[in-house]
Amino acid sequence: MAGEGKDGKRISGYGLGDISTVMSVEDVQKEAEKIASESPKVGYLEDLAGDTFLSIDTLRAGYGRMEILHGFSLRVAKGQSLCLIGPNGAGKSTVLHSIFGFTNIMGGTISVGGKDITKLSANEKLRDAGIAYILQDNSVFPQMTVEENLWMGGFLKGRPVEAREAAEKVFDKYSRLAERRKQPANVLSGGERRLLEISRALVMNPEVLLVDEPSIGLEPRFIDMVFEILDDLQRVEGKTIIMVEQNAKKGLEFADIGYVLVSGQLAKAGKGDDLLADPEVGRLFLGG
Predict the structure, then answer these.
(1) Crossing angle, helix 190-202 and helix 160-173, to 10 degrees?
(2) Confidence (pTM)
């Protein structure tokens, strides 16, 4: 979020409040580091999750030789949702990248259903561990039809006919896409593109959805639609959802659990509603 402060200087910050009340990115980082002095213990994370399905233990990960995550741990139960919030550069997307196999793992483990998946490739995690990654934006193939985009979501299935059968199930679920199945993806609205991105991930019938910034670039009416879709996938279909969301308030309202990351480490964790009511979280990330 950016604008001009009272002194006329351009500033950037977080939250939904008036720009005069929004802290600069630098101030948010400094204040957030203060609350990171006592990181939640694993026992507390396990209590929050209940029956752990996906776990991360003391993960050190990054890109090349650059370490972004420093001893990060996470717990989430099957059919539960978790939202990661924090300052820019805190390592939120790196958590998703690490789970899916896009980073260099320097230490620690990632497990799903009791199986160590740390060293599996991204393809193996999608095919064998049931983990799908939904990118931030613009990941559809614009010149391909909606139908063809869905078929691409099943590229790891053994036979093309299986991908087409899975795509038909998506069309049965989302009439909005079915009506446009033969049209190129570039004619879709922003909300419809995001629905297509989510639906393409569903073709492999994953158990875990990693969702990176679902609201980014969308009009408010489409943001509500996307979160309604994610809520249905969690509550009705039992998907486990781990998301990064720039709109911290919207993400915490949706999620069962929230984690606050600072400088590649877990600074705070709690139920989504509890973090929404936390004055420190509100002051730093919710514009209040």
Answers:
(1) 130
(2) 0.84
Q: How many residues does the chain have?
A: 288
pLDDT at position 39, please? Answer: 82
Q: Are 140 and 149 in contact (CB under 8 A)?
A: yes
pLDDT for 15: 45
Amino acid at position 164, single letter: R
Buried/exposed code over 192-204 (b: 16+ C-beta within 10 A; e: otherwise): bbbbbbbbbbbbb
Nearest-10 crossing angle of helices 190-202, 220-235 = 20
In the chain, which stretches have pLDDT less than 70?
Answer: 1-38, 137-138, 156-159, 287-288
Cβ partners under 8 Å of residue 151, min gap 6: 160, 163, 164, 167, 203
Residue 213: which residues within 8 A CB-CB, separation 6 or more?
Answer: 136, 137, 244, 245, 246
Q: Give 38-285's CATH code, choosing from 3.30.1330.50, 3.80.30.20, 3.40.50.300, 3.40.720.10.
A: 3.40.50.300
